[in-house]
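Z., the sequence and structure:
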Amino acid sequence: MGVEPRVEVVREDILSAVAQQLIRSLNAELSDRYPEEGATHFRLHAEEVAEGRGAFLVAYLASTPVGCGAVRVIGEAVGEIKRMYVSPAVRGRGVGLAVLDALEAEARRLGIRRLVLETGVRQQEALALYGRVGYSPIPAFGEYVDSPLSVCLGKDL
């Protein structure tokens, strides 16, 4: 039995080809899970993840990009996790946890003491991951207030 390759998580430019391919894959999956009229893919702009304001991270497994996630500052010592995604072929292998750990480390570096996030009601694997690492339900916030398919979670760092 071979040794499982280690997940490497690194900062990438959100406008890079690698990042854009992962975001396209995420958006395609979200469109499949939420086909109804009015389901929204909330955007993330490059300036929101610029150095000092946030970060966009990509996970690699054996040099192949397999996941991503971002953190952005949204208030005094408050940050938001965005665009978390793991390729279906490697789910259950610790990629999501590695990305989330790296995002939390980046958040601490940015002076963030509380993280919030939004995920969807049909993303049970994401809800399970966030619950395992201490995220708990919070009232809908920001652009998610009127989104009936959203679940908002928070965690103090």
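The first helix runs from residue 17 to 33. The longest strand covers residues 64-75.

Let me know what you think.
H.
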